[in-house]
Design goal:
The chain is of the alpha+beta class and 243 residues long. It contains twelve helices and two strands; from the N terminus they run βαααααβααααααα.
Amino acid sequence: MNALNKAKEPFKFYTQLHIPELTGLKAANLQELLDLIKTVPCSVIYYHTHRFLQQHQYLSPEPPNDFAYWITGILGEEELGEELFSIDTIQYTTIRELRDEIVRFIENYVVKHPRSLQKFAATGEEFHFVKSVSFVFQTPYTASDLKEFQAVLQRVTINSIYFHMFESRLRIGRGTNDFSNWFDDILSEKKLANKIASLDPYTHTMENLRNTLIKLIEKRIIESQEKPPDIKTALPDPNKLEE
């Protein structure tokens, strides 16, 4: 039996509020879009790659990419749109890395298809750049062990789960989600930490992600309560061996 550890430093649950804000920047063709993607703040890239996930957290687990939608629907460059849709966001640990990948796809496409630069969006259909202004708040919830953590997970809002699973990993640049960091560094639950870190949260709705986390933690709690086999009863009877 591998008993559960008690944390010296409790996990503090935070939540966040996102407010979209227009930047006043817009693009009418691929070149303008590319130039602005290279220079806008990371909060803009974050908004246009995570907007759907923030606004429709109970629905589709696949967050649409605003750049891909505009390139496909307005400019009619379906091949490039599909390439941008194929970007696996979970593979990147910072917004800068994600931005660089988007830029790489567009630049390569423009080299192969220089005429794509001649397509312009009609007036009113330009791509408008929006940034995500984030406000972070501490909730009244804390946890000092896995049992408390599981109980809190059932009570916090999906905004809190979103912050610790998405925001901290990619936008704040912590490399992995807050839950895995705490399980590994504070509770010495490396196996559980790795299981959660290996999840692709972009393939889950937020409620499904909550349930998945709860089940993983519950499984670990059950394992800690299982009794080891009785060695005496497991050994063969020596009298029967002699017979």
